[in-house]
Each structure stands twice: as structure tokens, then as C-alpha cells.
Write a structure and sequence with these properties.
- The structure holds two protein chains of two kinds.
- Chain A contains five helices and five strands; from the N terminus they run H-H-E-H-E-E-E-E-H-H.
- By secondary structure, chain A is of the alpha+beta class.
- In chain A, helix 3 packs antiparallel against helix 5.
- In chain A, strand 4 and strand 5 form a beta hairpin.
- By secondary structure, chain B is α+β, with helices and mostly antiparallel strands.
- In chain B, helix 2 runs antiparallel to helix 6 and helix 2 crosses helix 7.
- The chains are: A alpha+beta, B alpha+beta.
- At the A-B interface, strand 1 and strand 2 of A face strand 8 of B.
Chain lengths: ~180, ~250
């Protein structure tokens, strides 16, 4: 005979706490647009506040490379960036499953310094906003074939969001390398 | 009671018989609900919301017609037009939304919306979408001045640099009045009218209406309800008949 035992109160309490944690960690963007406004991200990326914006055009071979990385034509012909010295910051958007993810990338001398999810608009896959995911990009650079130099682990149930972040990181690193190549 | 009446009474007391009759009536309705329901369950895969009805008879059934009068803003020999929430540069659809105006720039056009600007090349390819965050007020107008493009947000005015990378707050100036809306040329108006017409009703809407029975007017709602109730009756009577028969089989063993 199977003896039923009552679940200990501590287990019930843990389950409630876990559910509450998951609920509270859901993206704030369900209520508002940004988890982290771009202006705040840029202010944090540079020691003395964000410099003025500049832009890089996705024309010719550069546009073709970005198309290859993204797997589709880039949504616009020009990308904005902010630069001081050899540090640049980029705010990019890419569709995860159906809605765009906005992410910020800080790059110095060809290596990612910081990656942040600025806005997440899907109902699933929001785990990518957490540090345990974004810190995987630290010190990552571009290798042959415009791939990332280190693997970025997938998150079960957030594959499309993870892939979008990988693609944006590759684009940001590629465009930063383009700036270094044309710098006098 | 006559034998005939007794037989009729016994017949209609049979739940199995009601189950059969309800099934016959509900079969067609159930098939209809099932087919439309399965299609609606795959709205994303079939891209039903992104595919629009172009068949005139169906548009007529919904009383949807092409806009009769469309006016646009002339910009240096081109036209910025808005109709039914769709924005066009000449005959090319560029964006969904309500534009507050456009202007010529060094690399093409700028089209202003309440919260953003969109920069386009001369052949209407999107160069960049620029969120306008210089103020919390909504953009209300845009105007080409001698020293650049002026964007107006409420009581404030901002002058964009040539690349639209920065916006400088300027003293409110008596701005040059933007071009007023004018009737589109005869070569352009029907093209835009047709495009607007063919992007009004999507297949998801049609299927939802078919599924809910809205196609036969008010009666359709009740027919759908009756179909639902019949299906419930079938489910309940089917279970009861099954239990009755199972018991009968056990008794006869």
C-alpha cells in the first residue's frame, strides 16, 4: 500500500517563494517600453556621460556582410553609435520570435565590455535579460567568418531570443571593426 | 393509451434517439466550427493576420470600399500621403501610423510621427528610424527652414542637424507654413486607393467571423450558440448512453 504523506509546510513555502520570484522577475517592459532606457545605458557606458552620436552606413560589402550575419536584409541603411576614444556603444534591434528585442553593446578595442537587454517585448524568452546570460558576452570578440570567439550557451525556451542576441553582438562587433579599419 | 402512442412515447424517451438526432443536426455545424477553429489555431503559421482580402465580392460583403478622396503633402515633386493609417511616399507604402508631415533632406526625406522620425532615401528605402526623445511632448509638425529641418513638439521647437543625429532646442520662430494637403495627381490616387482597399480586411478577421457565425447577421450568433449547446448535449448524452450500454452488457454476462 502506498503511504501518502502530507507535503511539508517548508516545501509549500519554497514553491510559493519560487513562484513569486519568477513573477517578480518578469520583464517590467510588460508594463512599460524599456527595461533600461537607451539614454541611461549610454550614460553608464562612458565615464563622463555619453558623447554625441555618429552613424555608419550599411552600404556595399558592409551591408552584405550584415545581411549574412542577420540572415536577412538589415532593417535600415544606417546604424547609430556613440564613440569616445576606442570605446563605442551600440543600440541595436532584432526580432526574437515576433517582436523586436532592443539591446545595448559596449565595445572596446574589438572586445565586448558590456551587453544589456534594453527592451524585451515578447511573452517568453525574457531570461536573456539576466546577468547570468549577458555576462557570457564579456571579452568576446569576432573570429573568422564573423562568428563570436566564445560560445554563448542557449537557454531552454528562449532559443530565438538567444539567437537574436548572438546576431546583434556579431553585428556590433563587425561594425566596430569597420570603424577601426577606416579610422585614420 | 393506444399502441401507436405507446410506441412513440417509448421512442422519444430513448436518450440514444435524441443523441442520434442531435448528432445529425450538429454534424454540419460541428464540421464548420472544427474547420474554422483549426485554421484559427494556426493563425501565425498561416499568417492569416498578415494576408489581406483582395476579392471584391468579399470586400463588398463587408461594405468596405476604396477611399474616395485622398490628399497628400507635396514635397519637392514627390508626395507624402496618408490614408486609413497607411503612409506612402509616392506610390510606395512606407509605414503604418499617423504622420504629422514630411520634409526634404540632404539624403532624401524625413517623415515625422508623434514620437519618432523616419529617414528615407530618395527611392523610399528606410535609412533609419530615429526615436524623438528631446522632449516628452508629441511631435506635431515638421518644416524645412533655410537653416535646416525644424521639428515642432507642442510649444517647443528643435532644429535637426544635417544628419539628424542631434536636435537643438531653438527659440520658437514663426515657421514657414508647411505645404497644405492637396488632391493627389490622377496617376497616383487610384494606385494608393487600391492599395489601401487591399490592406483593410485580413483573413483572420474573416475566419473569426465565420467561426462565430457573424456572417449570417444576428441569427448567426444564436446558431453558433445552438451548435455549441448541441455539442454539449451530444457529449453528455453520449457518455450516459455509453454507461447504460456498458451496464447492460455486464448484466447479460
Amino acid at each position: 500500500m502506498i503511504k501518502r504523506t502530507q507535503q511539508p509546510a517548508t516545501d509549500n513555502g519554497l514553491q510559493f517563494a519560487a513562484g513569486l520570484f519568477l513573477f517578480l522577475s518578469m520583464p517590467i517592459s510588460l508594463a512599460g517600453e524599456y527595461l533600461l532606457p537607451p539614454e541611461q545605458f549610454l550614460a553608464g557606458a562612458f565615464a563622463d556621460g555619453a558623447p554625441g552620436a555618429a552613424s555608419i552606413w550599411l552600404a556595399g560589402e558592409r551591408g552584405d556582410t550584415v545581411s549574412d550575419i542577420l540572415g536577412h536584409k538589415p532593417p535600415s541603411l544606417r546604424v547609430r553609435y556613440w564613440q569616445r576614444g576606442n570605446r563605442t556603444a551600440w543600440v541595436l534591434e532584432e526580432i526574437g520570435k515576433e517582436k523586436p528585442i532592443t539591446a545595448g553593446f559596449v565595445i572596446e578595442a574589438g572586445k565586448l565590455l558590456n551587453v544589456e537587454v534594453l527592451a524585451f517585448r515578447e511573452s517568453r524568452g525574457w531570461e536573456i535579460k539576466h546577468e547570468f546570460f549577458t555576462e557570457q558576452f564579456d571579452a568576446v570578440e569576432l573570429s573568422d567568418g564573423h562568428e563570436l570567439s566564445a560560445p554563448i550557451d542557449n537557454i531552454t525556451g528562449a532559443t530565438l531570443s538567444v539567437n537574436a542576441m548572438r546576431r546583434m553582438a556579431r553585428v556590433a562587433l563587425f561594425l566596430e571593426s569597420e570603424l577601426r579599419n577606416v579610422a585614420p | 393509451m393506444s399502441p401507436r402512442k405507446r410506441r412513440l412515447r417509448e421512442k422519444f424517451a430513448s436518450l440514444y434517439l435524441w443523441h442520434r438526432y442531435a448528432g445529425l443536426i450538429a454534424a454540419l455545424l460541428a464540421a464548420w466550427l472544427a474547420m474554422t477553429g483549426i485554421l484559427l489555431n494556426h493563425t501565425d503559421d498561416l499568417q492569416l493576420a498578415e494576408n489581406f482580402v483582395e476579392q471584391q465580392w468579399l470586400l463588398d460583403a463587408y461594405n468596405i470600399h476604396a477611399p474616395k478622396e485622398i490628399s497628400g503633402e507635396p514635397i519637392a515633386g514627390h508626395w507624402l500621403t496618408q490614408s486609413e493609417g497607411r503612409v506612402y511616399l509616392d506610390n510606395k507604402f512606407i509605414a503604418q501610423g499617423d504622420t504629422v508631415g514630411g520634409a526634404l533632406t540632404g539624403f532624401g526625406f524625413v517623415v515625422a510621427f508623434s514620437d519618432r522620425l523616419q529617414l528615407y532615401s530618395t527611392d523610399a528605402v528606410l535609412i533609419e528610424e530615429v526615436p524623438f526623445t528631446a522632449t516628452s511632448a508629441a511631435l506635431t509638425d515638421i518644416s524645412l527652414q533655410a537653416d535646416g529641418v525644424l521639428v515642432i513638439a507642442g510649444q517647443e521647437q528643435f532644429l535637426a542637424d544635417a544628419d539628424f543625429l542631434t536636435f537643438e532646442r531653438v527659440k520658437p520662430r514663426a515657421r514657414v507654413a508647411g505645404q497644405s494637403l492637396q488632391a493627389l495627381p490622377e496617376s497616383l490616387a487610384p494606385v494608393i486607393a487600391q492599395d489601401v482597399l487591399h490592406h483593410t480586411l485580413n483573413w483572420e478577421r474573416v475566419l473569426l467571423d465565420l467561426h462565430a457565425g457573424r456572417w449570417v447577421g444576428r441569427a448567426g450568433k444564436w446558431i453558433a450558440d445552438i451548435a455549441g449547446l448541441l455539442l454539449l448535449l451530444l457529449a453528455a448524452s453520449g457518455i450516459i448512453v455509453w454507461v447504460q450500454r456498458a451496464r447492460a452488457r455486464r448484466r447479460h454476462r
